[in-house]
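Run log // design_07
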């Protein structure tokens, strides 16, 4: 098996973009191309304002883009030239059929596998990076084998991600472990070794764990289950929760200093999130700053860890809100005691807040 010189990542989302950017940074001799069918998303990756925000990501992309890191919609060329291909596409919850509302929908993973089989003319290492059910790698292999061309062989690996929002680059650069699963065959072990060599550019070998595919997939699902147990109240993606609020009649004001208005609307009206996009559009307004967004509202929900949100003048914000004024700190970054002294009814995750004397005197609701 030849050494990996070109990598292709199918899916320019939250996992694929940062992961491949760090690989490009740490492996300057390897050409890394991230592909996506969305022209708008690829245009954002090639712009000065990336489609996602993670501390440190801008600097990594700026350093590598145009050198050994590329973002493209030319899927066929990238797949054909790649030695190793990451599949890093969305796996939304099924909205119909068996497992509706519970099981992962593998249509994008399977579509990526079919695209590889259609385009590939040489041997490929195919790495599942998406969050997938156990035996998904077997499904990918079945598709590749059923559609492969003569003389083309594939090795399937599982390399789950363990990234957290807000620390993704730190999690990648200083990973405490990397997990790689492959087949227990000479060819499978050789493929594992090639992926190990990539990570060994910056991760100590003792932190790179190798196992079989089934165990690798199971480990990721176990980690997800543990996370869900820790924060069981956060059960669905944020966009889904927002649409549920809108279905209950809420009017939503949105402010995000990093995400473009078009991207916000696209995320909230995606078919996997709502079946009534026009209702969503009619009940949301997007603002240019936090003060105008919070004016005359009943509650604030803080969902991201931008430093700007810590530094806001909450006394002014409280004065302009309807009373009682609620604030839900979903990232646990604010000074809750100070907010309570101002007059807010404060809620957060995993912490029961004691009402201040002022709040009790006014008969404010018990904090959760």
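design_07 sequence
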């Amino acid at each position: 098996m030849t050494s990996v010189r070109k990598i292709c990542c199918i899916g320019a989302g939250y996992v694929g973009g940062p992961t491949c950017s760090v690989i490009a940074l740490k492996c300057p001799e390897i050409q890394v191309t991230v592909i996506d069918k969305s022209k708008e998303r690829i245009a954002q990756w090639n712009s000065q304002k990336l489609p996602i925000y993670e501390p440190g990501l801008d600097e990594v992309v700026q350093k590598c883009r145009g050198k050994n890191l590329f973002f493209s919609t030319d899927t066929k060329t990238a797949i054909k030239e790649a030695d190793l291909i990451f599949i890093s596409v969305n796996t939304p919850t099924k909205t119909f059929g068996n497992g509706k509302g519970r099981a992962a929908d593998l249509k994008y993973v399977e579509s990526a596998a079919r695209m590889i089989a259609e385009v590939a003319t040489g041997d490929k290492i195919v790495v599942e990076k998406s969050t997938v059910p156990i035996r998904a790698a077997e499904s990918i292999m079945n598709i590749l084998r059923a559609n492969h061309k003569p003389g083309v062989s594939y090795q399937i690996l599982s390399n789950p991600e363990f990234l957290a929002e807000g620390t993704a680059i730190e999690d990648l650069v200083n990973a405490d472990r990397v997990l790689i699963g492959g087949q227990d065959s000479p060819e499978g072990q050789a493929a594992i070794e090639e992926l190990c060599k990539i990570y060994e550019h910056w991760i100590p070998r003792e932190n790179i764990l190798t196992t079989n595919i089934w165990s690798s997939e199971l480990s990721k699902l176990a980690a997800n289950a543990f996370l869900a147990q820790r924060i069981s109240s956060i059960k669905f993606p944020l966009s889904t929760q927002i649409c549920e609020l809108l279905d209950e009649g809420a009017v939503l004001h949105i402010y995000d200093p990093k995400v473009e208005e078009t991207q916000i609307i696209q995320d909230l009206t995606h078919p996997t999130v709502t079946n009534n996009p026009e209702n969503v559009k009619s009940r949301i307004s997007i603002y240019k700053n936090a003060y105008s967004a919070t004016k005359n509202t009943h509650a604030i929900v803080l969902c991201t860890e931008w430093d700007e949100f810590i530094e806001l003048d909450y006394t002014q914000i409280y004065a302009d809100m309807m009373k009682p004024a609620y604030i839900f700190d979903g990232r646990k970054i604010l000074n809750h005691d100070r907010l309570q002294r101002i007059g807010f009814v404060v809620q957060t995750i995993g912490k029961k807040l004691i009402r201040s004397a002022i709040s009790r005197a006014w008969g404010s609701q018990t904090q959760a």
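The longest helix spans residues 213-230.
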